[in-house]
Write a structure and sequence with these properties.
Blueprint (H helix, E strand, L loop, with lengths): L2 H23 L3 E4 L6 H13 L16 H4 L5 E4 L5 E8 L12 H4 L4 E5 L6 E4 L6 E3 L5 H5 L3 E6 L11 H6 L1 E5 H9 L4 H15 L8
Parallel strand pairs: 3-4
Antiparallel strand pairs: 1-2, 2-3, 4-7, 5-6, 7-8
Helix pairs in contact: 1-8
């Protein structure tokens, strides 16, 4: 197991902790869906949402949630917004803000997942295929806002969720990207630049650290 792999795992965990605490500060109820603690959080969140008069619906085919194989593929978090909206959140740390097909596999099992990309910088592209044959360039008018955002969201267009199939690149054609600030406003009617800025600073502080080899 190489140092680069370990470095990536550590930074991925740090990114999850940052996102978890940021969402809590923004008023969300956040449950971590680790395999060892799956059943209890689901029961907790059902009780929580029922008290908020919210509608709990994990996936369109809820029976799939009963299988152990599906449970193992749960995204990182289940969140409930202050107004009772329930979502799955998957967190990925990508230094330059780009994701590929493997990062989008979560959409096969949970098409309604909100994929949050924690980054240190964003270049011209936001998606690339592993064989490098396909890259998606950010529109010129959107570049600055993506480059200024340390948290960007990838999600599937709701009308296209039924079209999810075994072709990852097909999933990509139904996906779009949005910065955290716009996602919070559009989806949950939440605005808090101070919290976003504070946690963006933590991303830079903790995820900019370079790995060092002790000779």
């Amino acid at each position: 197991m190489g140092l680069a792999y370990i470095d990536g795992k550590i930074k991925g965990t740090i990114a999850e902790v940052i996102v978890e605490n940021m969402l809590q500060k923004l008023g969300f109820f956040v449950l971590k869906t680790a395999q060892e603690s799956i059943v209890n959080p689901i029961l907790q969140i059902e009780r929580f949402v029922s008290k908020c008069n919210g509608n709990l619906k994990f996936i369109k085919d809820i029976e799939n949630l009963q299988t152990l194989n599906t449970l193992r593929k749960l995204p990182d978090f289940i969140i409930v917004s202050p107004n009772g909206r329930v979502d799955f959140i998957e967190v990925k740390f990508r230094n330059k803000g780009m994701i590929n097909e493997r990062d989008m596999e979560v959409f096969h099992h949970f098409p309604d997942t909100q994929l949050m990309i924690v980054n240190l910088e964003v270049g011209d592209n936001i998606f690339y295929s592993e064989n490098k044959e396909h890259k998606e360039e950010i529109k010129e008018e959107d570049k600055k806002k993506f480059q200024d955002s340390r948290f960007n969201i990838c999600l599937l267009d709701e009308l296209n969720n039924e079209d999810v199939n075994d072709e990852i690149i097909g999933i990509y054609t139904s996906a779009h990207f949005i910065i955290l600030k716009e996602w919070l406003k559009n989806r949950y009617d939440i605005e808090d630049d101070a919290i976003i800025n504070n946690f963006s600073e933590l991303v830079v502080k903790w995820l900019s650290i370079k790995e060092e080899i002790d000779h």
